[in-house]
């Protein structure tokens, strides 16, 4: 007799990676007969019944690579996406705020990129993704999956309690004590519970890394209407990069990582000054920006006048002839928010009966838009490993099996973390010789198509 | 052999850089002389980026070093280094609200814009009166400044002009005389203020013209003062001197952090 509180796989955390993993497991012919519990602390009904407000966008968006999109297609999630609210982009422009040296990636120009690829990546609201996954999961109501919402894991432990009619020794299976009073036992426990993962601390896996002395400000911007708003823009300022990502022809999403002091001031700045500060951050000299930073608390200064004056001077000098992102006209009310930036990598992704995925395993600076894509790559890899375990009749919690997942993902995540961290450090420096060398590097790479193609393929998740 | 190789490399590099930036920066002597006439140029006056300028500065310096007959390279060197200097100076002004006001209004100093006879009537000890005294004592007028040429960017040309026009105000504030010694001391002072090495070029060559006694005095008295005073005082490019005629000059020195050389 099977105890109803025994599971093959328990996933803690019903965010995008956790619920995508559950979805992929029930969708797979090989793993769908396993008993799965997905435990989420929030009530998901808001997202399940998500009705996107017309001409408003959430400030939490992600950039999905072709590889992540393919995964969503494979598990049947993509068909549930609201396609009017996603925006592919084929063009990336990145430039140095001090020297203005630029690099441009365009998927059409790259010789070695498969022409069938429609875009470098897609900008999509996190709610849109999560809603599509929940819609798909709802179709599996009668399967072997239990989605426990509104449920907190109070304690994880190993216990010796012997269940009735127990034929096997399950003392090495993790037990989960839930807020609804139930106790679950699981063969394999998966932590998809974010940067402060309780699963990771239960497993005493250390998380290595550091906090950047920086915070990211996000906002939804209304921009000058574009014929085709399909470029991702990023300017590296000495305080951190500012990026503008297309949502549709009239809206873009902004991520601006900057010092904690500036971030909180930028968040509370009156919106008319805020939009011109953003325009200035993409177009004006660093010295102009530094002046504006010093005036953030001065209500008498009209940023629009400063911006228009400097813009007219730069246009006359010809600098305005470079291509810049669309002008910001307005900021969506209450769309400004800030969060801390961290770099983390767990010292190990697996232990006996335990695996970590997504932010529970690693956290990355958002400047390359790779965080969620890494998490989804973890999911794909772990699903393969579990399928293999099922097919070959192994215990799914066996460390030898789980190590295949770890060895597949650890180095690859570490490389991406390292590359993004180095980029952040390289561009966070305003020491003249370093500015000179990195600008030279940018311009040289900009002319080396094969190198550019390799970089963009790496960023797109094409191996 | 090595020289020849380096020379070839540097002129190739210069040429390549010029080509790569030619589509938006051609209105300068050197690019015209280097590039093949077949290429199409836009004639709009579009400056190249700071970064490209520094590349040009380095490569033109190399070329000129190995072949001093390349006058175009020396001109390029002068043009690119001065534009780096002016860009930095402008940035310092852009960071300051008075500096921005000056850049926005672009006030000009000459005998038409400044009523010198009126300044002479101000009470002793005011900045206006001291300035008039300086002009009369040295028998100069604000019109003797050289006009700015060869700088295409309007705003940078203005910064250069302002820099020259303010020179006599610097003399007035620091009380340094118009002599080789005084001018060199002022150059050191400007270097300490701006931290821009270009202001030092003449301070290195200049002392050759001094007697050994003067030279000793320069390095033992003026230079230490210039470095100390220049680095702790407010950047004088951000002072709207035209608004200060009636100010007490001692008060003004105090506000700006300037003390006199003993």
Automatic annotation (TrEMBL), chain A:
This is Ubiquinone biosynthesis monooxygenase COQ6, mitochondrial. Belongs to the UbiH/COQ6 family. It holds the Pfam family FAD_binding_3. One of its GO terms (molecular function) is oxidoreductase activity, acting on paired donors, with incorporation or reduction of molecular oxygen, reduced flavin or flavoprotein as one donor, and incorporation of one atom of oxygen. It catalyses: a 4-hydroxy-3-(all-trans-polyprenyl)benzoate + 2 reduced [2Fe-2S]-[ferredoxin] + O2 + 2 H(+) = a 3,4-dihydroxy-5-(all-trans-polyprenyl)benzoate + 2 oxidized [2Fe-2S]-[ferredoxin] + H2O; a 2-methoxy-6-(all-trans-polyprenyl)phenol + 2 reduced [2Fe-2S]-[ferredoxin] + O2 + 2 H(+) = a 2-methoxy-6-(all-trans-polyprenyl)benzene-1,4-diol + 2 oxidized [2Fe-2S]-[ferredoxin] + H2O. The keyword NADP does not apply. The gene is COQ6. One of its GO terms (cellular component) is extrinsic component of mitochondrial inner membrane. PANTHER family: UBIQUINONE BIOSYNTHESIS MONOOXYGENASE COQ6, MITOCHONDRIAL. SUPFAM superfamilies: FAD/NAD(P)-binding domain. Its EC number is 1.14.15.45, 1.14.15.46. It is found in: Mitochondrion inner membrane. It is a peripheral membrane protein. Keywords: FAD, Flavoprotein, Membrane, Mitochondrion, Mitochondrion inner membrane, Monooxygenase, Oxidoreductase, Ubiquinone biosynthesis. FAD-dependent monooxygenase required for two non-consecutive steps during ubiquinone biosynthesis. Required for the C5-ring hydroxylation during ubiquinone biosynthesis by catalyzing the hydroxylation of 4-hydroxy-3-(all-trans-polyprenyl)benzoic acid to 3,4-dihydroxy-5-(all-trans-polyprenyl)benzoic acid. Also acts downstream of coq4, for the C1-hydroxylation during ubiquinone biosynthesis by catalyzing the hydroxylation of 2-methoxy-6-(all-trans-polyprenyl)phenol to 2-methoxy-6-(all-trans-polyprenyl)benzene-1,4-diol. The keyword Zinc does not apply. Component of a multi-subunit COQ enzyme complex, composed of at least COQ3, COQ4, COQ5, COQ6, COQ7 and COQ9. Its cofactor is FAD. It comes from Gigaspora rosea. It is an enzyme of class 1 (oxidoreductase). Residues 8-258, 329-409 form the FAD-binding domain. Pathway: Cofactor biosynthesis; ubiquinone biosynthesis. Its main location: mitochondrion.
Automatic annotation (TrEMBL), chain B:
GO terms for cellular component: extrinsic component of mitochondrial inner membrane. Coiled coil: none annotated. It is a peripheral membrane protein. GO terms for molecular function: 4-hydroxy-3-methoxy-5-polyprenylbenzoate decarboxylase activity; zinc ion binding. Pathway: Cofactor biosynthesis; ubiquinone biosynthesis. PANTHER family: UBIQUINONE BIOSYNTHESIS PROTEIN, UBIQUINONE BIOSYNTHESIS PROTEIN COQ4 HOMOLOG, MITOCHONDRIAL. HAMAP family: Coq4. Component of a multi-subunit COQ enzyme complex, composed of at least COQ3, COQ4, COQ5, COQ6, COQ7 and COQ9. This is 4-hydroxy-3-methoxy-5-polyprenylbenzoate decarboxylase. It comes from Gigaspora rosea. The gene is COQ4.
């Amino acid at each position: 007799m099977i105890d109803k509180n025994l599971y093959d796989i328990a996933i803690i955390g019903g965010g995008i990676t956790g619920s995508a993993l559950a979805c992929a497991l029930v969708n797979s012919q090989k793993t769908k007969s396993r008993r799965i519990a997905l435990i989420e602390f929030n009530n998901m009904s808001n997202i399940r019944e998500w009705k996107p407000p017309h001409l408003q966008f959430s400030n939490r968006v992600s950039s999905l690579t072709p590889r992540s999109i393919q995964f969503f297609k494979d598990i049947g999630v993509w068909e549930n996406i609201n396609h009017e609210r996603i925006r592919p982009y084929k063009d990336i422009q990145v430039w140095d705020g001090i020297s203005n040296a630029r690099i441009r990636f365009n998927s059409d120009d790259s010789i070695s990129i498969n022409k069938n690829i429609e875009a470098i990546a897609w900008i999509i609201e996190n709610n849109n993704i999560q809603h599509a996954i929940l819609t798909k999961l709802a179709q599996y109501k009668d399967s072997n999956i239990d989605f426990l919402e509104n449920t907190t894991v109070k304690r994880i432990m190993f216990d010796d309690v012997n269940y009735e009619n127990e034929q096997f020794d399950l003392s090495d299976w993790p037990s989960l004590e839930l807020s609804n009073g139930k106790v679950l036992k699981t063969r394999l426990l998966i932590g998809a519970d974010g940067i402060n993962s309780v699963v990771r601390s239960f497993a005493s896996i250390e998380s290595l890394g550091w906090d950047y002395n920086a915070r990211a400000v996000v906002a939804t911007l209304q921009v000058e209407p574009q014929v085709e708003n399909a470029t991702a823009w990023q300017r590296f300022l000495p305080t951190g990069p500012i990026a503008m990502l297309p949502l549709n022809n009239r809206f873009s999403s902004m991520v601006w990582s900057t010092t904690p002091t500036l971030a909180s001031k930028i968040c509370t700045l009156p919106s008319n000054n805020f939009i011109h500060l953003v325009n200035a951050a993409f177009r004006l000299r660093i010295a102009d920006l530094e002046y504006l930073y010093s005036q953030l608390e001065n209500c008498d200064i009209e940023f629009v006048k400063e911006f228009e004056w400097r813009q007219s001077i730069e246009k006359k000098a010809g600098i305005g002839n470079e291509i810049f992102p669309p002008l910001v006209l307005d900021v969506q009310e209450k769309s400004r928010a800030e969060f801390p930036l961290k770099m983390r990598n767990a010292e190990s992704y697996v232990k006996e009966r335990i695996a970590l995925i997504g932010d529970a395993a690693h956290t990355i600076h958002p400047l390359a838009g790779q965080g969620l894509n890494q998490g989804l790559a973890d999911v794909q890899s772990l699903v393969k490993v579990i399928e293999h375990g099922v097919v070959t009749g192994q215990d799914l919690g066996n460390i030898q099996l789980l190590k295949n997942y770890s060895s597949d993902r650890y180095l690859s995540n570490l490389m991406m973390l390292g590359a993004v961290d180095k980029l952040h450090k390289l561009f966070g420096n305003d020491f003249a010789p370093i500015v000179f060398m990195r600008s030279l590097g940018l311009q040289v790479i900009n002319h080396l198509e094969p190198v550019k193609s390799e970089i963009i393929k790496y960023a797109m998740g094409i191996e | 052999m090595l020289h020849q190789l380096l020379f070839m490399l540097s002129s190739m590099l210069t040429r390549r850089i010029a080509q790569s930036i030619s589509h938006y920066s051609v209105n300068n002597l050197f690019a015209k002389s280097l590039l093949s006439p077949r290429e199409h140029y836009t004639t709009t006056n579009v400056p190249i980026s700071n970064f490209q300028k520094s590349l040009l500065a380095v490569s033109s310096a190399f070329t000129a070093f190995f072949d001093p007959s390349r006058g175009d390279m020396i001109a390029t060197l002068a043009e690119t280094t001065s534009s780096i200097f002016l860009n930095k100076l402008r940035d310092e002004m852009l960071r300051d609200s008075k500096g921005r006001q000056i850049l926005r209004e672009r006030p000009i100093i000459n005998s038409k814009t400044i009523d010198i006879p009126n300044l002479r009537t101000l009470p002793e000890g005011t900045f206006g009166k001291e300035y008039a005294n300086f002009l009369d004592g040295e028998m100069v007028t604000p019109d003797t400044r050289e006009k700015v040429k060869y700088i295409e960017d309007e705003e940078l040309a203005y910064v250069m002009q302002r820099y020259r026009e303010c020179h006599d105000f610097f003399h007035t504030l620091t009380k340094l005389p118009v002599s080789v010694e005084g001018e060199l001391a002022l150059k050191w002072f400007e270097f300490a203020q701006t931290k821009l090495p270009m202001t030092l070029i003449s301070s290195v060559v200049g002392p050759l013209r001094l007697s050994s006694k003067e030279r000793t005095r320069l390095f033992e008295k003026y230079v230490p003062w210039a470095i100390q005073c220049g680095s702790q005082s407010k950047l004088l490019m951000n002072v709207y001197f035209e608004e200060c005629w009636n100010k007490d000059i001692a008060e003004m020195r105090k506000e700006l952090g300037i003390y006199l050389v003993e």
